[in-house]
């Protein structure tokens, strides 16, 4: 490890390795290659994300195009031929004859989209407020952190439910189903910014007193530029860890809300909505409608979670 | 000390006022209350009368004050959907949620502390490691999936326990309890496990890590050196010193149990306040949502306050720290 350059401008005698080799040999990837759990969960996440992104290409049916649906295909068990149409479906069909495999692929698209967008929103709000609180200080900091403290005393899922309820009240009834996805992103994003703000504020307080910030101040850079160009890059690594763990939480929060019937509508089902639909068939024996979306959700949440755990350890040398 | 208590109480009141403002704004600005309360067939006179009755023409501050006055007296108006006073509906539903929360809280605390001690003492034992691994899966499993899984195993496959509702209930002076009938107790088992499992794993992991921390201390080694029995060292010396964080976290978890009851109640169609709240969101029944918001905030803020004050009562070291 020692004979490899840590950055391109370190003077070295050995032949300069290519950029790719350099990344491959980096400490971070070395950690990654040593952890089977990280590799497996990364593979699962990538597989799921890619199959969600390319759902229109992979899915054998378009579950939301009524023209391709045949009600006669309803309740076909997985892998068996339908008794009327002789069609077979890899993971069976639901009550309306929609292919479960395709609905899962499309459902995952919505789950992941809501998850990523909500985390992004939480991140933008949290980083902005955290930087301002840490850098500006004074009563601005007091107000921001007090609000954060108060919000933290309530469970995030409850806050998300309330925001969803209020936002739903404000949208006109005819747009409610169309807007549901965006309202969901808003609700989960707003319920989750506190973690980011706290961490960024803490890190900013540390960075603020360092010499490079003093130097930037001396040469007359504006507070805005200092926060964005100097402090932000140095506080990003804990943010990355929180973002990964937040993603798992956001995916579960989205599934929970949709399962409770206060999230993605049946016209745009996410994994949670599919599980909600599937629960209705638990007693009548159509287990596949419930089981496969549940397993997908579990695999997704668990692997993102494990990846986050690993990332936390890998980015924190103290824990090694 | 006294100054700190007063400051904390004032802070809590401020938080409640702000939450009240949010709840009131929902009332006032989400949709038109007149539209929500009067049907299609209404006259201008009806509208005028109701406007006057609700005080919608009063200044904002006056309306807010009236709302708070009503809220303090438990008056949250009339549910848009059920046409009954919200306070009455909530009072009907509260026993179901409180009983469920109490049972799962006790389960979580009992098993959490017990398993936490066990896994800490047998740190490298096979069964302790197994429990720790299972708890990791338990944390990642969303609550509603646990509920569905339990329903599938114990109701669908084995047919031992009911999958929904409270079973038979007995009325004791306005409080409906399911503790006294067999079907009521049976109906309680699955929801209570579903609700308590997550809190249990949380408490277990906390007790374990605190216990491991304490067992490393010098005074434990000294207690062993004195030749005290293992049981005495573990329970009299180690456990006692792990309890401060456990009490505070458990206190805070008490609030989350009520909040997470929303999910469990939906899975099991448990007729409690959580299910009421979810239905209120689905149908945009603002008075019920506002009342639930106020109720749960009072509870959370109250629990937080009590936990903060408990800190001082339990750990004398904090009293000195808090003074500067």
UniProtKB/TrEMBL annotation, chain A:
Matches recorded under SUPFAM superfamilies: MetI-like (SSF161098)
Superkingdom of source: Bacteria
Keyword line: Cell membrane, Membrane, Transmembrane, Transmembrane helix, Transport
Subcellular location(s) per record: Cell membrane
GO biological processes: transmembrane transport
Family: Belongs to the binding-protein-dependent transport system permease family.
Gene3D superfamilies: MetI-like
Matches recorded under PANTHER family: ABC TRANSPORTER PERMEASE PROTEIN, OLIGOPEPTIDE TRANSPORT SYSTEM PERMEASE PROTEIN APPC
GO CC terms, sorted: plasma membrane
Annotated protein name in UniProt: Glutathione transport system permease protein GsiD
Transmembrane segments: 37-59, 110-136, 148-167, 179-200, 231-253, 287-311
Signal peptide: none
Bilayer topology annotation: Multi-pass membrane protein
Organism of derivation: Pontivivens insulae
Ranges of residues in domain ABC transmembrane type-1: 108-308
TrEMBL record, chain B:
SUPFAM superfamilies xref list: MetI-like
Topology in membrane: Multi-pass membrane protein
The entry's keywords: Cell membrane, Membrane, Transmembrane, Transmembrane helix, Transport
Keyword set includes Aminoacyl-tRNA synthetase: no
Tree of life domain: Bacteria
Keyword field contains NAD: no
GO CC field: plasma membrane
Family of the protein in this entry: Belongs to the binding-protein-dependent transport system permease family.
Name assigned to this protein: Glutathione transport system permease protein GsiC
Source species of the chain: Pontivivens insulae
Lineage, broadest ranks: Bacteria, Pseudomonadati, Pseudomonadota, Alphaproteobacteria, Rhodobacterales
């Amino acid at each position: 490890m020692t004979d490899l350059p840590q950055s391109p401008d370190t003077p070295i005698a050995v032949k300069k390795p290519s950029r790719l080799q350099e990344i491959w040999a980096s400490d971070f990837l070395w950690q990654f290659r040593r952890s089977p759990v990280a590799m497996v969960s990364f593979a699962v996440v990538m597989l799921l994300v890619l199959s969600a992104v390319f759902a229109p290409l992979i899915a054998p049916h378009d579950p939301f195009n009524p023209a391709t649906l045949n009600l006669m295909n309803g309740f076909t068990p997985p892998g068996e031929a339908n008794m009327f149409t002789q069609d077979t479906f890899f993971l069976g069909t639901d009550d309306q004859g929609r292919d479960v495999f395709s609905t899962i692929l499309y459902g995952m698209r919505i789950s992941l989209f809501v998850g990523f967008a909500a985390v992004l929103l939480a991140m933008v709000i949290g980083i902005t407020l955290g930087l301002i609180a840490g850098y500006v200080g004074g009563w601005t900091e007091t107000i921001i952190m007090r609000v954060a403290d108060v919000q933290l005393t309530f469970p995030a899922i409850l806050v998300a439910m309330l925001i969803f309820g209020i936002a739903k009240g404000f949208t006109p009834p005819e747009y409610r189903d169309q807007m549901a996805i965006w309202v969901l992103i808003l609700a989960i994003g707003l319920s989750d910014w506190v973690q980011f703000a706290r961490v960024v504020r803490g890190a900013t307080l540390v960075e603020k007193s360092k010499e490079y910030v003093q130097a930037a101040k001396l040469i007359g850079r504006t507070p805005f530029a200092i926060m964005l160009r100097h402090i932000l890059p140095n506080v990003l690594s804990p943010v990355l860890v929180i973002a990964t763990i937040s993603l798992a939480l956001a995916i579960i929060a989205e599934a929970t809300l949709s399962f409770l019937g206060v999230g993605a509508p049946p016209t745009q089902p996410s994994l949670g909505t599919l599980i909600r639909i599937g629960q209705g068939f638990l007693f009548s024996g159509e287990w596949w409608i419930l089981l496969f979306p549940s397993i997908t959700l579990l695999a997704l949440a668990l692997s993102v979670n494990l990846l986050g755990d690993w990332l936390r350890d890998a980015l924190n040398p103290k824990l090694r | 000390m006294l100054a700190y208590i007063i400051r904390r109480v004032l802070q809590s009141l401020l938080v409640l006022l702000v939450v009240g403002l949010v709840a009131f704004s929902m009332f006032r600005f989400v949709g038109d209350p007149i539209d929500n309360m009067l049907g299609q067939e209404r006259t201008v006179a009806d509208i005028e009368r109701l406007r006057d009755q609700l005080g919608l023409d009063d200044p904002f501050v006056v309306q807010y004050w009236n709302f708070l006055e009503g809220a303090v007296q438990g008056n949250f108006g009339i549910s848009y959907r059920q046409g009954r006073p919200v306070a009455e509906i909530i009072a009907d539903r509260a026993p179901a949620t409180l009983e469920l929360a109490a049972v799962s809280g006790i389960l979580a605390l009992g098993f959490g502390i017990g398993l936490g001690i066990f896994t800490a003492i047998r740190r490298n034992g096979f069964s302790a490691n197994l429990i720790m691994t299972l708890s990791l899966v338990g944390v990642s499993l969303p609550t509603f999936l646990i509920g569905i899984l339990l329903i599938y195993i114990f109701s669908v496959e084995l047919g031992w326990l009911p999958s929904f509702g409270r079973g038979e209930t007995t009325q004791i002076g306005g409080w409906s309890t399911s503790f006294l009938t067999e079907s009521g107790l049976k109906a309680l088992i699955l929801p209570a496990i579903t609700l308590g499992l997550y809190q249990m794993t949380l408490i277990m992991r906390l007790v374990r890590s605190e216990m491991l921390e304490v067992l490393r201390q010098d005074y434990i080694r000294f207690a062993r050196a004195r030749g005290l029995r293992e049981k005495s060292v573990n329970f009299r010396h180690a456990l006692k010193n792990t309890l401060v964080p456990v009490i505070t976290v458990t206190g805070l978890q008490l609030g989350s149990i009520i909040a997470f009851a929303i999910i469990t109640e939906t899975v099991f169609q448990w007729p409690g306040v959580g299910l009421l709240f979810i239905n209120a969101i689905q149908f945009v029944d603002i008075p019920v949502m506002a009342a639930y918001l106020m109720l749960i905030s009072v509870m959370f803020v109250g629990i937080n306050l009590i936990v903060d004050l408990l800190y001082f009562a339990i750990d004398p070291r904090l009293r000195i720290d808090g003074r500067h």
